[in-house]
């Protein structure tokens, strides 16, 4: 029985990839990617601003936290009731972006806050301008934490995009939704459900691994930079 | 504003069964949290005593958490069918990790010297657990409960997708019928419940942290 089920699933994925699974997968990825791109365009400047102006950080983070707490289906549905929204990708992307902002902004703020003031001081002492300090020192040092935020936001976005289909935006949730409204005891329907679940789970696990890989890669230069700092005392000794 | 009044009217109309759905929502979340606490807290206490086991368990749980919760909800569909029970199972699975991880973290955060002192006073294992370790671990455990409660109450809205009932039912019918009043009758209480639970448990946590 188990074997039969797996067989129908494999068969389903092969036979129906082009007409059923593929398009939904593409929609899912598109929705998630657009969400994250918009999220990043907002969160990077906002996070930088909040790390510079501490008095703003509290209120803004509270608002983002409250949005993050609102049940996903409720936020999607609430946006539909707004006059300039409709059933479609626009609503879904707005809701998904609103959710992603919490992790993205929080990690950007934490990342910039975590840069050692002594390093900034040293960079200033070397005669760096504000822009140079930001691009050459602060941003690279904050990057691992920011990327961790992107990873967290990506994972939750991939999960939440599943709900987009209930506001008419498509995505892999469509496969699950169809399965609920059909006879779940039919092997094809079960295969369709599993195909959707495997794709969502696969996207999540895949992007988690990808971002962890990126995180480990960008940590290396930071370490290398530290070694440079470690060498400096020796250089200093030699100089003395 | 007009839609809001209509939503209120809809909710107050006995035919809409608003109270029934609200109770279903609370029952879904309550049962799930209770069962998750029954599993997560003892398991957390247990693994906190064995460092290497704890690391393995927490890594496995951390990996499983990568899988979106909605996948778990639908994964149960073929074997459990639609309805209340599969929803509770999915919600329980969602609530266990924060409770488990925070119990373990809280228990291991208790200074060994304090445990040593308790033992020196002749406390038995259970006395030590009940009077020393658990009270000291409580703020961290409440933090775990907060995460679990907010996630569960929020996620219970999605139970409607597999026929589990609750406030999500109003949202789903509102979306299906394009009726904003029905939709808001689900959206507003669902949002208030999760935000309220978060604020309440935050307050509890703050009080406990001040006491210790």
Features:
heterodimer, A: 240 residues, 8 helices, B: 212 residues, mainly alpha, 10 helices
The helix-strand sequence of chain B is HHHHHHHHHH
Count of alpha/pi helices of chain A: 8
What is the string of helix and strand elements of chain A?
HHHHHHHH
Q: Mean pLDDT of chain A, rounded to whole units?
A: 83
- Overall pLDDT of chain B, averaged? 85
What is the strand tally of chain B?
0
Helix content of chain A: over 70%
Supply Rg of chain A.
23 Å
Explain what the structure shows:
The complex is a heterodimer of chains A (240) and B (212). Chain A has eight helices and no strands. Chain A is an all-alpha fold and 240 residues long. The radius of gyration of chain A is 23 Å and the shape is elongated. The termini of chain A are far apart. Mean pLDDT of chain A is 83; it is low at 226-236. Chain B is an all-alpha fold. Chain B has helices spanning 2-12, 18-48, 51-64, 69-75, 77-80, 84-108, 112-120, 125-155, 168-177, 180-211. In chain B, helix 7 packs across helix 8 (125-155) and helix 9 (168-177) runs antiparallel to helix 10. Chain B starts with a helix and ends with a helix. Chains A and B meet through helix 3, helix 6, helix 7 and helix 8 of A and helix 4, helix 8, helix 9 and helix 10 of B.
What's the layout of helices and strands?
The complex is a heterodimer of chains A (240) and B (212).
Chain A: H1 2-52, H2 54-69, H3 72-81, H4 89-113, H5 117-125, H6 130-161, H7 173-180, H8 187-239
Chain B: H1 2-12, H2 18-48, H3 51-64, H4 69-75, H5 77-80, H6 84-108, H7 112-120, H8 125-155, H9 168-177, H10 180-211
Helix pairs in contact in B: 1-10, 2-6, 2-8, 6-8, 7-8, 8-10, 9-10
Précis, in short:
The complex is a heterodimer of chains A (240) and B (212). Chain A has 240 residues and is an all-alpha fold.
């Amino acid at each position: 029985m188990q074997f039969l089920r797996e067989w129908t699933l494999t068969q389903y994925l092969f036979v129906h990839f082009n007409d059923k699974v593929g398009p939904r997968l593409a929609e899912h990825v598109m929705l998630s990617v657009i969400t994250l791109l918009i999220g990043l365009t907002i969160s990077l400047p906002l996070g930088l601003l909040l790390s510079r102006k501490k008095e703003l950080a509290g209120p803004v983070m509270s608002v983002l936290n409250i949005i993050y707490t609102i049940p996903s289906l409720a936020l999607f549905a609430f946006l539909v009731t707004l006059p300039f929204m409709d059933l479609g990708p626009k609503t879904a992307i707005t809701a998904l972006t609103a959710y992603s902002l919490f992790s993205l902004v929080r990690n950007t703020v934490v990342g910039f806050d975590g840069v050692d003031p002594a390093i900034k001081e040293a960079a200033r002492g070397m005669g760096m301008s504000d822009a140079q300090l930001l691009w050459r020192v602060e941003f690279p040092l904050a990057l691992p934490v920011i990327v961790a935020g992107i990873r967290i936001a990506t994972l939750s976005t991939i999960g939440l995009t599943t709900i987009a289909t209930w506001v008419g935006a498509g995505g892999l949730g469509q496969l699950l939704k169809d399965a609920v409204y059909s006879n779940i005891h039919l092997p094809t329907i079960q295969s369709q459900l599993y195909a959707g679940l495997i794709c969502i789970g696969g996207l999540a696990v895949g992007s988690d691994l990808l971002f962890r890989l990126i995180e480990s890669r960008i940590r290396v230069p930071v370490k290398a930079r530290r070694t440079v700092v470690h060498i400096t005392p020796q250089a200093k000794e030699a100089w003395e | 504003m007009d839609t809001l009044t209509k939503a209120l009217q809809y909710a107050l109309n006995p035919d809409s069964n608003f109270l029934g759905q609200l109770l279903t929502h609370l029952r879904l979340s309550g049962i799930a949290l209770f069962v998750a606490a029954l599993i997560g807290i003892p398991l957390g206490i247990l693994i906190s005593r064995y460092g290497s086991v704890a690391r393995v368990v927490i890594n496995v749980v951390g990996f499983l958490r990568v899988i979106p919760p909605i996948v778990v909800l639908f994964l149960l569909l073929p074997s459990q069918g639609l309805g209340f029970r599969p929803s509770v199972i999915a919600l329980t699975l969602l609530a266990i990790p924060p409770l488990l991880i925070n119990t373990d973290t809280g228990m291991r955060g208790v200074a060994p010297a304090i445990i040593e002192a308790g033992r020196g006073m002749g406390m038995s294992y259970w006395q030590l657990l009940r009077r020393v370790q658990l009270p000291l671990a409580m703020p961290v455990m409440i933090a775990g409960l907060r995460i679990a409660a907010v996630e569960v109450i929020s996620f219970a809205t999605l139970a409607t997708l597999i026929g589990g009932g609750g406030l999500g039912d109003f949202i789903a019918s509102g979306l299906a019928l394009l009726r904003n009043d029905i939709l808001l009758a689900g959206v507003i209480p669902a949002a208030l419940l999760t935000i309220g639970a978060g604020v309440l448990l935050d307050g509890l946590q703050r009080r406990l942290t001040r006491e210790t």
